What does this fold into?
Amino acid sequence: MQPGYAAVLCVMAVLGLEAAAPGECELTRLLQDKLQYEMRLRYMKHYFPIDYTVQVQYEEVLRPSNITHLRNRTVSEAALRYLWFHVSSQAVLRIREVLPEKHPSWKYTQELCQLFDALGKEYSKYRQADVEAVVADLVKLVHSGGAENRRKAVRPKALLDNCLKVMRMLYGTRCQWEST
It folds into this structure.
């Protein structure tokens, strides 16, 4: 466990979701560090066969344009962060499902899962009833897993690229990250 990690979790437990909590900002900053271009390229492209894809539900691909569309429909920022968390954590799990434990990317995806688990502790206090219906419906679809006919093939790196782009849209200004 990294130094200060327990303190971050304690801070997160005390603060609410409506504003991005300092602990939430710290965890997303750690995620941003893990999702640096060089790491995504090495672990999600170079260590996979050429043109390798993962089957995901259509709703598990969250792009910046989707966020813009939802913002135009006046969906709250808190609900958008809630949606981003569920879609992105599910994307990492989808990637991890196809990896054997001895794969070079296994440890990297394990570390991403741990960061999402820590963020999940914050979001676990947030109920689906508290978010707009459109976001609640999307979260239900993401976790249903039964939409086999609504699957699409996506490269692992593309899933993490979208995760990072959307995270920067939702947290960059609010958490006052330095541009990297």
